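User: Can you predict the 3D structure for this chain?
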Amino acid sequence: MTPADLEFVAELVRRHAGVVIRADKAFFIETRLGPVARREKVPGVPALLEQLRRVPDPVLTRQVVEATLMQETSFFRDRAVFEQIGKTVLPELAAAAAARGDGRLRVLSAGCATGQEAYSIAMQATDLAAPAAVEIVAVDFGSYPLEKARTGLFTHFEVQRGLPIRRLLAHFDKIDENWRARADLRQMIQWVELNLLDDLTRLGTFDLILCRNVLGSLTPQAHDRVLAALEAACRPDAVMVVGALETSTLSAAFSPMGPRGLWRRRTSLADTPAPAPASAPARTQA
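Assistant: Here is the predicted structure, written as structure tokens:
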């Protein structure tokens, strides 16, 4: 892949998904686009990109962008965060849902990839002592990862990455050499193909939003746009979770809590602490 090819792909991904592709990703991008080239019956990735330059095709463009986006995920990724979610966040949100009368707890997994994050939350939701009807909405740009996520079928390698054996045996069935999430978990999750740059209001509002290891890959403009939309989708006292190593700092309506990356929305800005003195460093989330 030439530098011109890489820049062409990077511009497509920036324009359509708001994601930044680094210059050192040429081999990775070419590997990801190889199957697209074979489906199009063209002799390699350079020929695929030349075809797309000559005849811009929205369907092929989306296939290229979708194939390029990274889909790295695992069960219970960042265990400290999930321990806090299971022990404190979900029980408190479930109790609040019961107190407000609807008993309905809504969770958004934004950038869900092949679904391990959504299934991790679903497993934790089954442990709730407080009664709550938990609805998980999992969204991603790509159709292929969502197709896989919807089946609930994972390889032995995939379940070994972060899934404790007791949860595996309690919530999955062995299917030949693979493992499939049981029906009660699959029924808790609604899978939605959606670009986070699009209008998110149609999804409604949520008690818990996870958007981890997504914001850090976006352009500054896309980052601010997506973060503002996610904040707007938070119910009062909702919890937002971003990647532990991302630098996103939420607005003054949110305060950090527990492990790095967890933020809680305040019911009232009157609860917001006074600003730090000018000499103090600004709080950031790394």
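The CA atoms of residues 111 and 261 lie 16 Å apart. Confidence is low (pLDDT under 50) at residues 269-286.
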